[in-house]
Amino acid sequence: YNVSALLIYNDGATPDRVSPIAVGLGQENYLPALFLSSSVGQELVNAAQNTSTNAGVRIIIQVKDLPLSPIGNICADTPTGDITQTIVVGSHSDSVPAGPGINDNGSGSTANLGLAIALARLFNNS
């Protein structure tokens, strides 16, 4: 197809699907990819479908490499624990693009903290 870039847009079918899509590509990527709002995407589709015009898109992108951030995991064993009895607990503390930050997913981290406190009490009392 001789593709020069990838343009992705939300379909706008519901109010929460009109913002640009936000996603990390997670690997080396040599194809520019832009995530557009529903209105911009639909405007480009309309222009491309209009055969009386020769629609085109000019993309100017500035990119930079960001340093990798360390990710921490906590692993714990009890001195007298049974290796056949394992508890795995997980959550994430990031947010969605429309959210103000950690508060929308902070409940997972809060639940982890609550479980850690409860387990500590359980192991101290048994």
UniProtKB/TrEMBL annotation:
Domain Peptidase M28: 73-121
Transmembrane spans: none
InterPro entries reported for this sequence: Peptidase_M28
Domain of life: Eukaryota
Pfam families: Peptidase_M28 (PF04389)
Name by which UniProt lists this protein: Peptidase M28 domain-containing protein
